[in-house]
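Following up on my earlier thread - several people asked me to post the actual chain instead of describing it. Fair enough. Here it is, all 241 residues.
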Amino acid sequence: MSQELFRLNKYLSDAGVCSRRAADAAIEAGKVMVNGEVAQVGMKITSDDVVLFEGRPVSNVGKKQILIAYNKPAGIVCTAEKREKNNIIEHINYPERIYPVGRLDKDSTGLILLTNQGDLVNKIMRAVNAHEKEYVVTVDKEITADFIKKMAAGVYLDELEVTTRKCQIKKLGPNKFDIILTQGLNRQIRRMCQALGYRVRTLKRVRIMNINLGDLKEDTYRDVSLKELKELNKMLEGSKN
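Reply from S.P.:
Thanks for posting it. Predicted structure:
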C-alpha cells in the first residue's frame, strides 16, 4: 500500500516552522534537506522522510495546534527573527515554537495573534481575503468631519503609490477615533493620518476578526478559546492561502 504524500511546504507549515510562502523561499535558498539531500520547491514527501530545516529535524506528527492572543506593549518587534533586539518570540518565551500572525509596528500596542499553524497565518493575512482588524487611535490635534470623511473614502499614499480601501471609522473624542481596516499596508494608519496632516500619538489594535483584546492586560497572553477558534475557522472557510 502506497504511503500518503505531502507537499513539503505544507508539511513545514503544519509543523509550525513557517508559512507555506516562507517555506518555499527557504527551500529555494537551500535551507531544507530531505533524507540528506537539498530539497526542491514543489517536492512531495512521506511521513517516513527525514526533514531538516536549517539543520534542525522537523516533525508534524501529533502536533498540538496553538493559537494565542497577546497584548503587545510598545517597543516589542513583531518578528520571529531572534537576531532582532526585543523580538516578540524571545520576549514572550513561549514553551513551544510559534510565530506572529502578521505585524504590529514597534511603536503600536494591542492585539496580535501567535500560532504554530502556517495556513492560518496565510488565510488571515492575505489582503485578498479582506478580514477585519480594528484599532483605537489618538492623534495630535482635533479631528474634523472632513478628516473622518477622507479616511473613510480611502487615502492616497505617495510612498506606497496606492489608495487605501474604503473603511469604517468613528470619532470617539476630540482627538480619538476607532477604525476598522480590511487591508494591512505597512504603517497604514500612520501613513493615512500623515497624508491628511495629522500625526498618530497612540495606536492600539483591539480586534482581529472575531477575536477581541478585551481586558487582557498589557504584556500578557491567553489561549484563544475553543468557541473563538470555531467561529474563526468558520469565517476563514473559503479564504485563500
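Helices lie at 8-14, 20-28, 88-92, 118-125, 145-153, 188-195, 226-236. That should answer part of your original question.
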